[in-house]
Amino acid sequence: MARVCFLLKVRQDRIAEYRERHETVWPEMLRALSESGWHNYSLFLRDDGLLVGYLETEDFAAVQAAMAATEVNARWQAEMADFFEALDGARPDEAMKPLTEVFHLV
Protein backbone atom coordinates (compact mmCIF):
# COMPACT_ATOMS: atom_id res chain seq x y z
CA MET A 1 0.00 0.00 0.00
CA ALA A 2 1.43 3.37 -1.01
CA ARG A 3 1.11 6.46 1.17
CA VAL A 4 0.33 9.62 -0.80
CA CYS A 5 0.58 13.18 0.48
CA PHE A 6 -0.27 16.32 -1.49
CA LEU A 7 -0.66 20.08 -0.94
CA LEU A 8 -3.21 22.58 -2.18
CA LYS A 9 -3.96 26.16 -1.13
CA VAL A 10 -7.45 27.22 -0.06
CA ARG A 11 -8.28 30.88 -0.64
CA GLN A 12 -8.07 32.82 2.62
CA ASP A 13 -11.60 34.23 2.22
CA ARG A 14 -13.09 30.74 1.67
CA ILE A 15 -11.48 28.80 4.53
CA ALA A 16 -14.55 28.81 6.82
CA GLU A 17 -16.85 27.66 4.03
CA TYR A 18 -14.34 24.99 2.93
CA ARG A 19 -14.36 23.58 6.46
CA GLU A 20 -18.18 23.60 6.49
CA ARG A 21 -18.39 21.78 3.16
CA HIS A 22 -16.25 18.99 4.53
CA GLU A 23 -18.45 18.51 7.59
CA THR A 24 -21.15 17.18 5.24
CA VAL A 25 -19.44 15.54 2.29
CA TRP A 26 -22.07 13.99 0.05
CA PRO A 27 -22.66 10.29 0.86
CA GLU A 28 -22.32 9.39 -2.83
CA MET A 29 -18.92 11.12 -2.93
CA LEU A 30 -17.74 9.18 0.12
CA ARG A 31 -18.98 5.96 -1.45
CA ALA A 32 -17.22 6.72 -4.76
CA LEU A 33 -13.92 7.43 -2.98
CA SER A 34 -14.11 4.16 -1.05
CA GLU A 35 -15.15 2.12 -4.07
CA SER A 36 -12.38 3.68 -6.18
CA GLY A 37 -9.67 2.57 -3.73
CA TRP A 38 -9.03 5.66 -1.57
CA HIS A 39 -8.17 4.42 1.93
CA ASN A 40 -7.34 6.23 5.15
CA TYR A 41 -7.96 9.56 3.37
CA SER A 42 -7.52 12.71 5.46
CA LEU A 43 -7.39 16.44 4.81
CA PHE A 44 -5.62 18.82 7.18
CA LEU A 45 -6.12 22.59 6.86
CA ARG A 46 -3.83 25.22 8.34
CA ASP A 47 -5.25 28.64 9.27
CA ASP A 48 -3.49 30.30 6.32
CA GLY A 49 -5.21 27.96 3.85
CA LEU A 50 -2.48 25.38 3.34
CA LEU A 51 -4.27 22.08 2.75
CA VAL A 52 -2.43 18.80 3.28
CA GLY A 53 -4.05 15.67 1.91
CA TYR A 54 -3.05 12.12 2.84
CA LEU A 55 -4.31 8.78 1.59
CA GLU A 56 -3.26 5.20 1.20
CA THR A 57 -3.84 3.29 -2.01
CA GLU A 58 -2.42 0.58 -4.22
CA ASP A 59 -2.04 2.89 -7.25
CA PHE A 60 -2.60 6.66 -7.02
CA ALA A 61 -2.91 7.19 -10.78
CA ALA A 62 -5.49 4.40 -10.99
CA VAL A 63 -7.64 5.74 -8.13
CA GLN A 64 -7.48 9.26 -9.58
CA ALA A 65 -8.65 7.90 -12.94
CA ALA A 66 -11.42 5.87 -11.30
CA MET A 67 -12.73 8.96 -9.52
CA ALA A 68 -12.40 11.12 -12.65
CA ALA A 69 -14.74 8.70 -14.40
CA THR A 70 -17.56 9.25 -11.88
CA GLU A 71 -20.35 11.76 -12.29
CA VAL A 72 -20.34 12.66 -8.59
CA ASN A 73 -16.68 13.62 -8.74
CA ALA A 74 -17.30 15.92 -11.70
CA ARG A 75 -20.02 17.71 -9.70
CA TRP A 76 -17.87 17.90 -6.54
CA GLN A 77 -14.81 19.23 -8.37
CA ALA A 78 -16.91 21.87 -10.16
CA GLU A 79 -18.30 23.07 -6.82
CA MET A 80 -14.91 23.06 -5.07
CA ALA A 81 -12.70 24.63 -7.76
CA ASP A 82 -13.32 28.23 -6.65
CA PHE A 83 -12.05 27.44 -3.15
CA PHE A 84 -8.46 27.00 -4.33
CA GLU A 85 -5.58 29.23 -5.39
CA ALA A 86 -3.19 28.52 -8.27
CA LEU A 87 -4.96 25.66 -10.04
CA ASP A 88 -3.89 27.04 -13.43
CA GLY A 89 -7.08 25.81 -15.09
CA ALA A 90 -6.93 22.32 -13.59
CA ARG A 91 -9.64 20.80 -11.44
CA PRO A 92 -8.63 20.44 -7.76
CA ASP A 93 -8.28 16.67 -8.11
CA GLU A 94 -5.99 17.14 -11.12
CA ALA A 95 -3.77 19.54 -9.13
CA MET A 96 -3.02 16.97 -6.41
CA LYS A 97 0.64 16.20 -7.10
CA PRO A 98 2.15 13.71 -4.66
CA LEU A 99 5.04 14.84 -2.50
CA THR A 100 8.16 12.69 -2.36
CA GLU A 101 8.38 10.73 0.87
CA VAL A 102 11.80 11.15 2.46
CA PHE A 103 11.23 9.41 5.80
CA HIS A 104 8.79 6.96 7.36
CA LEU A 105 8.95 5.42 10.83
CA VAL A 106 7.16 2.10 11.08
Structural overview:
This is L-rhamnose mutarotase. It comes from Streptomyces hebeiensis. The chain is α+β, with helices and mostly antiparallel strands. The protein is built from four helices and three strands. It has a single domain (2-94), classed as Alpha-Beta Plaits (2-Layer Sandwich), CATH 3.30.70.100. The chain has helices spanning 15-23, 27-36, 60-68, 71-80; strands spanning 2-9, 39-45, 50-57.
Write a concise synopsis of the structure shown:
It comes from Streptomyces hebeiensis. With 106 residues, the chain is an alpha+beta fold.
List the helices and strands and how they pair.
Layout: E1 2-9, H1 15-23, H2 27-36, E2 39-45, E3 50-57, H3 60-68, H4 71-80
Antiparallel strand pairs: 1-3, 2-3
Can you name the CATH architecture? Answer: 2-Layer Sandwich
CATH topology: Alpha-Beta Plaits
Number of domains: 1
Strand order of the largest sheet: 1-3-2
Spans where pLDDT lies below 50 across 5 or more residues:
none
Secondary-structure-based class equals alpha+beta
Estimated helix fraction: 25-40%
SS summary, helix count: 4
Largest sheet data: 3 strands, antiparallel
| SSE order | EHHEEHH
Total beta strand runs: 3
Q: What is the residue-averaged pLDDT?
A: 95
- The fraction of residues assigned to DSSP E strands is 15-25%
What would CATH call the class? Alpha Beta
InterPro entries: Dimeric_a/b-barrel, Rham/fucose_mutarotase
Organism: Streptomyces hebeiensis
Protein name: L-rhamnose mutarotase
